[in-house]
Structures are given as C-alpha cells and as structure tokens.
Amino acid sequence: METENEDEQVQKQCVQLFSSTDFIMESKVFDTIKDYFRHGGAPDQVIELLSENYMAIAQTATLMADWLILTGVEPADVVNMIVQHLQTLIEKHFQPKKADSIFEAGGVPSWLTDMTEHMNWRSMIYKLAEEYPNCLMLNFTIKLLVDSGHEDEITSVPVAAQQVEVFTKVLMTTIQRTIDSEPDEWKRNIQELVVCIF
Questions:
Q1: What is the C-alpha end-to-end distance of the chain, expressed in Å?
Q2: How far apart are CA 29 and CA 110, in angstroms?
Q3: What is the chain's alpha carbon radius of gyration, rounded to the nearest angstrom?
Q4: Of 22-26, 34-38, 133-137, 168-172, which gets the smallest average pLDDT?
Q5: Domain count of the chain?
Q6: Same domain, 23 and 103
Q7: 116 and 43 in a common domain
Q8: In the chain, which residue ranges form alpha helices assigned H by DSSP?
Q9: In the prediction, which pLDDT does 53 show?
Q10: What is the b/e burial string over 167-185, where b = at least 16 CB atoms within 10 angstroms of the residue's CB?
C-alpha cells in the first residue's frame, strides 16, 4: 500500500515536470523519465506530455538571433541585446526562495560561476543583492565575487555590510584606493571611504 502511494506520488511529480514548457530541453529530463518508469509510469504519457509542451523557446531565440545577424546586425550587438533582455526578465521575475533552492541540489551550479566572470551579470547580481538582502544565493555569490577579486565593484554599502568578510575587503580596497590616488581624486575617494565607514 505504501509503495503504491509512493509510486503515485513520484508519477504525479514527474507528470508535473513533463507538463512544463520545454521540459524536454532540461538537463534532468532523462533522470525524471527513469524515475517515472521505475515507479510504473506509462511511456505513451511521457511522449505525449513532452511533445505537447515543447514550445522551442530557446531554439526560436537562436533562430531570431541568426536572422538578425543575416540582416547585418553585428554578432556582438545581438549578444548584447539577448543579455540585456535576459537581465531585464531576471530582475523582473526574480524569486529569492527559488534562487536559494539551487543549493538543495548540492554544490554550486557551473552557470553561477560562469555568470560571475562577466561584468554585465555581476552588475545585475549587485543590483539584485541590494534589492533582496536576505537571499542566500545572492549573498553567497557576492562572497564568490569578493573572493575572486571584484570587491572594488561593490559600490553599495548595504551589499558590502551583509557579511563581515565582504565588508572588510571592500573597506580595505577603498582605503588602498584612497592612499594610491592622485591629489585631484582624494576628495572623491575620501567621500567613498566615509560612506563605507559610516
């Protein structure tokens, strides 16, 4: 009886995933199919749900990008358009609880580390961290950024003040920048230092 209940529960969860848009493109599709079959799921339902819910969103975006390039738009400009649009969507629909759930899967996802290598994405992360100061994923990412030498990019005191280690590195960078600056930059650097301290 308990096994039947578990089988039904797993099937229900899998069907919910199969019913989501473009799930066939997700990396966990094969593991989900295996789980579904292990718990008595029917193959015809998998095929039906995956095909009915395939909207080809990523493929359509790639096709549109290729068309833009064919019309003469520079590939770098197309990439910038896509990145800006993605950032707008992420900022608009960001959900801290969902973001924090990435740690439930275990380990840091490679895409998060990849994002920290690009200034556009780092700027977005700083902006989101200011807006959602209690988000574990964003706080973790800020620490990653500071550990990889990007503390000079953190201009928001609330973001820096979230973690003592981050604040210390930002403060040290600001002090060093003030010491190393030319006399005509002192006023601006001292103002940054005052903001950082107080």
A1: 63
A2: 18
A3: 23
A4: 168-172
A5: 2
A6: no
A7: no
A8: 2-18, 29-38, 43-52, 57-70, 75-93, 96-100, 110-115, 119-131, 136-147, 157-161, 164-180, 186-197
A9: 96
A10: bebbbebbeeebeeeeeee
